Amino acid sequence: MAVYLLVLIFTFGLTSFKNSALAQSNKKPIERSSDLPSPLKAEVVGIQDGDTIEMKFVYNGKKAGFRKGKAVRIRFLHINTPERGRPYYKVAKQFTSDRCFHKIVSIKHSGEFDKYGRLLGEVVLPDGKILNKELVKNGLAVHFKKYSSSQEYSDLEIQAKKRKIGIWSPQGQVSAAVK
């Protein structure tokens, strides 16, 4: 009986090891390039906050500044989500994570980077929706008028305000006034 159990344990252990090794070999290595594809299509491997994500793609071009040779970070165009410690920060970050973490997304961009070496772009989700717009639509981001003159994003913000959702809800307004 003991021999039978040992054989059974060994067999299952070997099968698990083979499956684990197979899974590791199927993982795609991080793509590295000095060219920036447009659109950039890659897996999201990190969520910095509600409007910044990190991709499984390393860009070696000069425009990336001090982030040259590191995983590309995307700063969402047209919008701004609450900063750490502010009301709705965690909600916006979780919203972003739920929709794109460990998923392959496309980044629509014009090759522009901000002063922190983040690529500026719109995140196109696997279902075709644009995450930047979804955040504004759900009251978790504002139209960043300082850097965007988009009428569409402005209209989405106005609609969220009228619906009094997210940061525009009575709770969001009270929380923001207290800070």
Automatic annotation (TrEMBL):
Every TNase-like domain range: 38-170
Keyword Transmembrane helix attached: no
Keywords tagged on the record: Endonuclease, Hydrolase, Nuclease, Signal
Residues making up the signal peptide according to the UniProt record: 1-23
SUPFAM superfamilies from the UniProt entry: Staphylococcal nuclease
Entry-linked InterPro entries: SNase_OB-fold_sf, Staphylococal_nuclease_OB-fold
Record carries keyword Signal: yes
GO molecular function: endonuclease activity; hydrolase activity
Protein name: Thermonuclease family protein
Organism: Dyadobacter flavalbus
Lineage summary: Bacteria, Pseudomonadati, Bacteroidota, Cytophagia, Cytophagales
